[in-house]
Amino acid sequence: MGQLADAFHLTVDVPLYLVKRPRLWRLFFGLVCFSLGFSFLWVPQATAYWQSKQLGDPQTAGLIFLLLGIFYAAKSALNDLLYVHRISFSKNGVHLVWSHAPQIFGRRAQKERLFQWSDLDTLAWVESNHEHALTQHLEIEFKEIIGLNTSRIKVLVSDDRNADHCEKLISCLPDAFTVPEWLDVARKKKLGGLASSS
Fold it and tell me: Are 8 and 153 in contact (CB under 8 A)?
């Protein structure tokens, strides 16, 4: 994570893309699993082959493959695999670079745009307890859809309550932004310490 004088940049971990058409491959995998599940449940030859290999109950395997196939086929149809690549904050707004697969048979497409603060519907700080660490996130909801069916993203700000790091980001946000309670307490303690030392 880094910052310049006029903007604050968040580094985002982007998944490795192994295929150019991810939704199509998910659909293909789902159909293969569905076919296997159907075969193990209703085709005697497939059931007999599975039993001959002593791989377990063919009905259980068939049900698992069937459910797995339905799951991946549904994800292919409903999820455009939107990922944030880069995001930065300044007094002008949010500069976002993201990608998604808008069509099942299409390739992943990358987009870039500067969203003015007026383009945002909500901007909220979220703290979550992840593996005993109080991770800090910023949840952004845009007024328009940026993917297939989503207008909201959630980005990691800090792995813990890093007050200095979080303050640098908040300094780039609108003045009306609601500061998280723990940071407000840290500010008051710091001011109290400065007052007592003087």
Answer: no
